[in-house]
Each structure stands twice: as C-alpha cells, then as structure tokens.
C-alpha cells in the first residue's frame, strides 16, 4: 500500500462545445495527445511523477446508453497499469457527447452513473476518480455566462445545470463504489474568493462568496445558508431534489481538490459586476476557508502560469504555490498532493476555450513539441527534493492510496480494504 504525497500533473480532456453546439473544443486533439500519448506518459515518468489526472475523451468513448468504444481507453489505461502509475480518473470534463446534448438534460445524471459503473468494471485496478471535474465552473460557463454547451445566461439555467452536474457526480461515486469499494474521490473544484471594492459592494460580495460553495455543499450533503436555499428554490430546484443531496453523503470517501490560479480572485462592484483582481489572499488563505467548511483531506489539483520571459514567471509561481501548500500543511490541514496542470502547453486557454483560434498558451511542463520548459525542470527538482522528506513527516502517510500493482495483489489475495478518510487523518508536523 502506497501512502506517499501525490505529486501530480494532468493531461486535459476538456470537450465543451461552442457556436451553439456546432464546434467541439477537444483539448486532447489540440495538444496532439492522441498521436503522442505514449511519449506523454514517458514525460510524466521522466519528471518522477507517480500520479496523473487523466481520462478518456467522453464524446468518443460514450456512444450511447450502454454503448461504449473502449479502444483508446484500453490502450492508454492498460499502458498506465503497465507503468504502475496512479491515475486520478477524470470522467467528465466540461462537455457531453452530442447524443446527450447539454447540462440542461435531466437524463445526464443517471446515464452517467451507468457509464461510470461500466468504466470501473472494465478497469478494476483504478482507485482514484474525479467523476465530474469543476462542477461549479462548468455550470457557470455553460449556463450563466453563456460561453459553452447550452450557452444560456440566467440563474434558472445555472441552477438546472448545477443540480444535474452534482447529481451526476454523486450517482457516479455511488456506482463506482459498488464495483470498487476502495475508491476515493478527488473533487477537483475551483477555489474562489470575491473582494468587495467598497462598502456598498459588501452585500453582493457576500452573496457570491456563498454561491462559490454551492457545488461542494450539495456534493457533500452540507446544508446551504438561507440566502442560497432561497436562490435554489427560486430558480427551479425542488425540495425533493435538495433532499436528495442532503441524504446521499459519501463524504467519507472524498478528498477535496482545490484548483487555484491568479484568476480565482475577483473584485465585486456594488451592482454585483465582477472583475479580475489577481492574487490577493492566495491559495493558502482560501484553502483554509474551504477546509474549515468541509473538514476533508485536501489536494491542490490545478495551477499554472504562463512561463514569461525565459520561463521565470512560471518557475516563481511554482515555488510560490508550493510554499502555500507547505503553509496549509503546517497550519494543520491534511494536504495530500500537488498538481501542475498540465503536462504540456494548453491551446486556447487564454479565451477559456470560448474561441477556436489555436492559440498556444505556454503553461505546461513541456511545450507542444514535448521539449521541457524551465518550470518542468524546476518541478522535477522540487519532486526529487521533497519526496524524501514528506513521507516521513506528512499526514499523507495516512491516506490509503493504492498503486495498480497494489490493487492487483489485494484482489488476488481476496483483500478489499475500504478506506474512511475522515478517521485516518492526523495533524502533520511542522517542517519549517
């Protein structure tokens, strides 16, 4: 059984549609992963990384109810198994297959649970899952900002998308646990904060700071505050739907993934309009807020920055985020992993995938020719230095993460340990 700190990266499988469904934004295609997946896995190993946020492209794998094309998933996941690499399986990343439409479709949640169950049955050595990535961001961008998928712009559409996304996540967790009792779920969600620009903006900022928790409140069965309850009820959620979330709590199987970028903090004006404000509080302060709300083990599941001149901007950001991770850990929060996202440069991230322009953003550990960037070399060195220290002093010793070979061995011996994270975490020692 492996208990080490999870140094990770990711290969993004985003597939939102734009242009009212006419254009599919497939990030794996844009980054040439379909042609270079074996090279990409080699690069992950060359960095000394043992954990990879990764999933098959949903739109080409899930062909219809009970219909699947496993060819690409078989090739890639069997190769990850051969390499004994821990995958954090990203099943739904910002988009749906054409036959399902968009996130306004109530059939999405139960059908997605069937897909998750079939996936877990096919790859029984996999233990870590992110069934639905960034539920809040997906609902906001698809149904409130009008950027992706259904491209709607109203609160009722947002609540509809959100409840379907979170229900899909909960039902998928339940389905996976029926197949894989050792499963742990890493909820990768954007960690946000809204700053009032003047006293008149305090009210709108408080509302937005309550809304940022909605996806995780529903996912973890935590009662929302009264303002948010009224908001949900006023915009189409029924009491029965709310009760479903309160009574399907799988929190003991979860690790809270916090994504943090320079764009995660916002200024709020008195009319409720928001604007980017850059890093003010930073990852450590905001993650402490989320931890105090949910009391779950934490993983830093996404961050990056454009490399800047000579690569130094990205290297400085990596060191700053790592310092924040250590600060969170030393304050007593059980933090179990860190992720630079993603392995290679991203394409069209500068427009949040809203435009299909082919603009390469220098955010990766490697460029799209698979040459290492300065931040990749710095991350490799960071992993080499810290992986020897953290296992002897870190709370993550208590998180029962199994490698594929561990799972094979346990199953061969008829052993099926069921981890309950809430009973295993203890405060870490300070390494400063």
Automatic annotation (TrEMBL):
Gene3D superfamilies listed in its UniProt record: Glycosidases (3.20.20.80)
Gene Ontology biological-process annotations: carbohydrate metabolic process
GO molecular function: hydrolase activity, hydrolyzing O-glycosyl compounds
Keyword Amino-acid biosynthesis among record annotations: no
Pfam family name, one: Glyco_hydro_1
Keywords: Hydrolase
Top-level taxon in the UniProt lineage: Bacteria
Tagged with keyword Hydrolase: yes
InterPro entries: GH, Glyco_hydro_1, Glycosyl_Hydrolase_39
Protein name according to UniProt: Glycosyl hydrolase family protein
